[in-house]
Structures are given as structure tokens and as C-alpha cells.
Design goal:
This protein has 13 helices and 17 strands. With 393 residues, it is α/β, with parallel strands linked by helices. Helix 1 (15-25) runs antiparallel to helix 8 (242-253), helix 2 packs parallel to helix 8 (242-253) and helix 3 crosses helix 7.
């Protein structure tokens, strides 16, 4: 190994971000102050949505969105196994049942045709994920939802700043969720948001993030005085602080810069790897304008080849990651009776995927080093796959 370790992802924090947080520390507000509403307004404007409700993290955003959609025991949510488990865990948290449909081989996003086949009389929500930053086929999901009387949640944790058919992510679904974890395109440290054009869904999401607490006189059963409040539904403390929202506002101003640099890095990766026979790359679909969160490749040749590839990168100072283990292959879900073989494309991908370095602070020199390492690792993985195939023969 030569040089410092290059991770698959990392945040960008500059002096503007530090100044924004410092300003709040000196303001007298730490939480639930003016920066929260300002960040929500900024987000809604950038994403073309009427409402933005900021929350503690991306998982909280999903929980709030599903609660706003009215998920309850006996309901079903059609979703993808090619995601982090929070997408379906928050369905379980509300007593509902996730139903996994397979993904498209080209993007690893939820396949609309397979999603339609998974719909039953109990289905209430379709929850599509913008895998790696590529927007899901929202036109097809929204048309399907209209036909079947369903709601669509777009888990856009990877894709803030992206567009689909000319419209920004955040304006495409009934409810859209974002994550602002440090490796995402913009960060608030930890944080998330729910976006919607629907006044009622926004109100329900706001209630859920704050204990179900209501202070609006028009909605209360009575009003005993200015101190009075009511709790009208079950909710949690999913609030985001002024400190975090100040950071988020500063980061949001840099979103075009971040998106541009991520696109440049992905273009370099694709040009460098498109002719490597042991690797498969994702494909952009017509109408999609991704802001890439992950640079993922699939390593051909099975699990041993992927393990060889992963280890070879680590030996060369590159810290890759796997996104994702198919959710229906996790012990929790297998214990609930799910069979990963029912979604064969996602199952196969989960045994071949590897995420490579992609973040705005990645220098051209570091990228060159990472590209060389990937070429060498791919060669080792191909030899391992050939040896394994020869042994089987």
C-alpha cells in the first residue's frame, strides 16, 4: 500500500459550514429555532416540493413518511430488497408487511412490472428506492398507484439533486425521503427529510416527528390557554436541531458543485472500467439525470471472486464497501419466512456488488490511484473465478 487509505465515501466540510454552525452556537438557539424552518424552505425550493419536514435521520424520514401514509397492521408495502434494511424495517415498525419485488438488472432499482405483480388487496404503498443515486421509474410507479389507489414513497436517500424527466427528485412521488448522513451528497451530520405536495401528509409527518403533539388551535379539541397542547396521535422525537439545519443550509448551497464533481468522477470511472471483462457497470435509463451517491460495480465470477476483489483493494489502500446485502437474505427477514431466491436479480447482485471511491473531495491523483488498484484487483478476481470454474470442471 502506498499513500493514505482512500474510502468509498466521505463528507465535505469547509469554512462556510463551520461558520454557519458557529453562528447558531452564538445565537441563543440550539434546536427547534429559525434554522429549521429556513432549511425546510430551502429544501422545498430546491426540490420543487410544497412541503419539507426535516427529521433526525433517513430512517426517521421513512418512519414519518409511512406513518403519514397511514400504514398499520395488515397493510402491505411493495418494495425492493436492494436497499438498506431501514426501507423495510420501518414498515415492520408500524405493524405492516413488506413485500419484496425484484429489481431491474440495468439500474438495480425496483422493477415496475415485478412491483405490479406483487400488489394484493392489502397493498397500501409502493416504496421505490433510487439505488446509488439513479432515480427510480417514478412515472410508472405513480401511474400504477393512481390505477390501484395506492401511495408512492420514493426513498431518495441517495439522490438529492437528481432529476427524472426534467423534474427534480423530491417532486415526483406522493412522499419523498432524504438522508443527510455524512457519506450522502449533502450532510447535516445525521439528518433526513420528508417532502410532499400534500398538505395532509405534511401535517401528519410533522406531528409524527414531534410526539404527535398539536398546538394549532384550529385542530385542538379545546384551548385552555397559551400553554395548552394536545397529543392526538402516537409520535416520536425525530426533531432536527438548529445546529444541524444551519449545516444543511450551507451544504445545500454547494449541491450543484457536489453534483458536478460526482458526475465527473463517475464519468472517469466508467471510461476506465467499461472494457474490464470481469466487471459490470450500472446503466443510466432514458430521462434520468442521476446525482451519483455510489460508484458500484458487479464482480463477475461469484462470491469468491468478489471477496478476492475486495481484499485486493484493501491491500492497495482502497476501502470499498458492499451496497447491499439483499434485505430478504438478512437473518431477520429469513426468520420471518422471506426467501431471497424469490428475487433472483437482487440476490445475485448482492453477491457481486462492490462500491468504489466517490466523493467530491476525491482528488484526480487519488482517483488515478484507485483506478489502477481496481484494474489490478479485477485481474486477481478474474483469475480466482477462472480457477474456481476450472475446479468445478
Amino acid at each position: 500500500m502506498s499513500g493514505p487509505i482512500i474510502p468509498y465515501g466521505r463528507q465535505w466540510i469547509d469554512e462556510d459550514d463551520i461558520a454557519a454552525v458557529t453562528r447558531v452556537l452564538r445565537s441563543g438557539y440550539l434546536t427547534t429555532g429559525p434554522e429549521v424552518e429556513a432549511f425546510e424552505a430551502d429544501l422545498a425550493s430546491v426540490c420543487g416540493a410544497k412541503h419539507a419536514v426535516v427529521v433526525a435521520n433517513g430512517t426517521a424520514a421513512l418512519h414519518c413518511a409511512y406513518a403519514a401514509a397511514g400504514l398499520a397492521a395488515g397493510d402491505e408495502v411493495v418494495t425492493t430488497p436492494m436497499t438498506f434494511s431501514a426501507t423495510s424495517n420501518m414498515v415492520l415498525a408500524l405493524g405492516a408487511r413488506p413485500v419484496f419485488a425484484d429489481v431491474l438488472a440495468s439500474t438495480l432499482g425496483l422493477d415496475p412490472a415485478k412491483a405490479e405483480q406483487a400488489i394484493t388487496a392489502r397493498t397500501k404503498v409502493i416504496s421505490a428506492v433510487d439505488f446509488a443515486g439513479h432515480p427510480a421509474a417514478m412515472d410508472q410507479f405513480m401511474a400504477l398507484a393512481k390505477q390501484r389507489g395506492l401511495l408512492v414513497v420514493e426513498d431518495a436517500s441517495h439522490s438529492i439533486g437528481g432529476r427524472f424527466q426534467g423534474r427534480p427528485v423530491g417532486s415526483l412521488a406522493h412522499l419523498t425521503t432524504f438522508s443527510f448522513h455524512p457519506v450522502k451528497t449533502i450532510t447535516t451530520g445525521e439528518g433526513g427529510a420528508v417532502l410532499t405536495d400534500d398538505d395532509t401528509l405534511a401535517e401528519k409527518a410533522r406531528d409524527f416527528r414531534n410526539h404527535g403533539l398539536v398546538r394549532d388551535a384550529a385542530r385542538m379539541e379545546r384551548r385552555d390557554g397559551p400553554w395548552y397542547y394536545e397529543v392526538q396521535s402516537v409520535g416520536l422525537n425525530y426533531r432536527l436541531s438548529d445546529l444541524q439545519c444551519a449545516l444543511g443550509r450551507s451544504q445545500l448551497k454547494k449541491l450543484p458543485q457536489f453534483a458536478k464533481r460526482r458526475g465527473e468522477i463517475v464519468a472517469r470511472w466508467r471510461a476506465a472500467l467499461r472494457d474490464v471483462p470481469s466487471l459490470t457497470l450500472l446503466v443510466d435509463q432514458p430521462g434520468a439525470e442521476p446525482v451519483w451517491h455510489l460508484m458500484t460495480v458487479q464482480v463477475r465470477g461469484g462470491q469468491r471472486a468478489r471477496a478476492t476483489f475486495f481484499a485486493a483493494l484493501q491491500q492497495r489502500g482502497i476501502a470499498p464497501q458492499v451496497h447491499y446485502i439483499a434485505v430478504n437474505d438478512l437473518p431477520l427477514y429469513r426468520g420471518l419466512g422471506y426467501d431471497p431466491a424469490a428475487t433472483p436479480i437482487a440476490f445475485a447482485a448482492s453477491h457481486s456488488l462492490c462500491s468504489l471511491p466517490l466523493y467530491p473531495a476525491l482528488s484526480d491523483e487519488e482517483l488515478d490511484r484507485a483506478i489502477r488498484a481496481v484494474h489490478e484487483a479485477a485481474h486477481e478476481a478474474a483469475r480466482e473465478a477462472a480457477a474456481e470454474a476450472s475446479g468445478r470442471g
